[in-house]
Write a structure and sequence with these properties.
Elements (H helix, E strand, L loop, with lengths): L14 E6 L2 H13 L5 E5 L5 E3 L2 E3 L1 H11 L16 H8 L10 H15 L4 H11 L5 E4 L6 E6 L2 E4 H7 L6 E7 L8 H7 L4 E6 L4 H9 L4 H7 L4 E4 L2 E2 L2 E2 L4 H7 L6 H7 L6 E4 L11 E4 L7 H20 L2
The protein binds ligand FO1.
């Protein structure tokens, strides 16, 4: 819990930062984008899942957030484009290429453009901003870094690249550790640095993404944990676990394998050096000294759920700032 507190800035000058991964995080990011004007929100996305595949530069979490905010995401799976076709991948299969990573035709169009712009020397930040703008997203979506960081899993069979573990192997291998290769030397993206040092920063929201696979790569960047611990803005996390089960994905499996009790409380403890507020499901009784915990409906199925939770996050940040 931080002690240095500033008087809250006037409403119109407030700025907020959301840190997120893919599907779960994108839901809260969408809610925040619905309730905040575009100049008051920066969404910084994990790039540890990025990889080069079939000659393309793929940034799955950035694309999930972008498609979600653009209203283009495939709604059942929460990633990829809605109404996509797989003609290109059929050809890849016929020619003996790898098809374990589902790339739709519309999605491939985006990856072609990203790959070309990166090859031309544009930064991932510039490419992300250009794509989001072209798809009609007004809010700022930025990678955590323009440098290369790659999440790899330590398994009994050696190190596995993230997408090989997550998609190709369906998260089945038992993991003994996680590494974020390149993170210690990677520089923060301009958007992340700007948001964290913005004197009007009024709240940082850690979205309900996988703490170890999606948020930790961001926290592994030099100085991010220290900057979160020292910002006068309240830092609030939304639990990715409800009643001891992950809302989505392998969070609980990973926690067990890393010998961490799979609970909402354990996730808060993971963030304890910078956390001011924690939003949990009413089923989870979490008591933490120096962190205010509030129960709320955190499972977001509908747009209304996302907007309601986003509004609660904003009100909570006001409440915490007001207590300082
Ligand atoms: N996730 C899967 O489980 N299977 C896939 O084939 C898959 C393809 C894919 C293509 C583009 C994209 O942007 C995301 C895609 N994802 C797929 C999601 C992604 O692998 C993960 O959800 C994230 O990396 C974890 O946040």
């Amino acid at each position: 819990m931080k002690s240095a507190m500033l008087a809250p800035p006037s409403r119109s000058s407030k700025h907020y930062l959301a840190l997120c991964g893919g599907v779960g995080g994108a839901k809260l990011a969408l809610g925040l984008a619905h309730v905040l004007p575009s100049d008051q929100l920066t969404i910084v996305v994990n790039t540890g899942d990025d990889f080069e595949h079939l000659g393309l530069s793929i940034s799955p979490d950035i694309d999930t957030v972008t498609y979600t905010l653009a209203g283009l995401v495939q709604p059942d799976q929460g990633w990829g484009r809605s109404d996509d076709s797989f003609t290109a991948l059929d050809t890849v299969k016929r020619l003996g290429g790898e098809t374990w990573f589902q790339l739709g035709d519309k999605d491939i169009g985006l990856h072609l453009m990203r790959s070309m712009m990166l090859d031309q020397g544009l930064s991932l930040s510039a490419v992300t901003a250009r794509i989001a703008g072209r798809l009609g997203v007004a809010h700022e979506i930025a990678p955590m870094t323009d440098d290369i960081v790659r999440t790899v899993l330590d398994t009994a069979n050696g190190l596995m690249p993230f997408q090989h573990y997550f998609v190709k192997a369906h998260c089945a291998p038992v993991i003994t550790g996680i590494k974020y290769l390149g993170a210690e030397k990677a520089r923060l993206s301009a958007a992340l640095k700007r948001a964290l040092s913005n004197p009007n920063l009024s709240g940082v929201f850690i979205c309900p993404s996988n703490p170890y696979l999606s948020i930790d790569p961001i926290l592994a960047l030099a100085d991010v944990r220290t900057m979160l611990a020292s910002t006068p803005a309240p830092v609030i996390a939304v639990a990715p676990i409800v009643g001891g089960g992950a809302i989505k994905g392998p969070t609980v499996k990973i926690m067990r394998e890393l010998a961490i009790e799979p609970s909402a409380a354990a996730v808060a403890t993971h963030y304890i050096d910078f956390l001011d507020g924690y939003i949990v499901d009413a089923a989870d009784r979490v008591v933490l000294s120096d962190v205010q915990v509030i129960p709320f409906e955190i499972v977001m199925n509908t747009l209304a759920d996302k907007v309601t939770l986003a509004n609660r996050c904003l009100a909570f940040s006001d409440e915490l700032a007001g207590q300082r």
